[in-house]
Design a protein that fits this description.
The chain is α+β, with helices and mostly antiparallel strands and 155 residues long. 37% of the residues lie in helices and 15% in strands.
Length: 155
């Protein structure tokens, strides 16, 4: 079946079953590889993207459920030194990534958080990102990066 979805501001038409996970369409059909396959069960957050205004685990979200909502991946936040999103700049400045596998999911979950709560305290950040798993142990750097980005976005 032909499905039309808007990803990172561009309309795409893909051939997929409506129950195909959005992650597979992003990675296999659109070659957007920022969102990662981690667990396949919506438990780790490596596949997190924005669907509309919501941070969404794309490994279990059916592409047919996207409808008219905009999908934003980490590639849609910004790229190139001049066009990085405040979160991406802050993650770089705070060295908030080691292996980088969780980074795109963390960035997208953090974007959803800052869109809802522009000035979160560390406890709120930790609570809101508790479902995003990072095995490298850079959690404190991630919290600092989100706080740094929040300041820049409010300025």
């Amino acid at each position: 079946m032909s499905i039309s979805i808007k990803v990172n501001g561009k309309q795409h038409h893909v051939t997929a079953a409506a129950d195909t996970p959005l992650l597979y369409v992003l990675r296999n059909d659109l070659q957007l590889n920022g969102a990662k396959f981690g667990c396949g069960e919506a438990q780790c957050g490596a596949c997190t993207v924005m669907v509309g205004n919501d941070a969404t685990r794309s490994c279990v979200f059916p592409v047919g459920a996207v409808g008219a909502k905009q999908v934003t991946t980490v590639e849609g936040l910004g790229h190139g030194e001049q066009r990085l999103h405040a979160l991406q700049k802050a993650f770089l400045a705070e060295q908030a990534a080691q292996c980088g596998y969780c980074s795109s999911g963390m960035l997208m979950a953090a974007k959803a958080l800052l869109d809802r709560i522009p000035d979160p305290d560390p406890a709120t950040i930790r609570r809101e990102l508790a479902g995003q798993k990072c095995r490298c142990g850079v959690h404190n750097r991630i919290v600092r990066a989100i706080q740094r980005a929040a300041v820049e976005l409010r300025a």
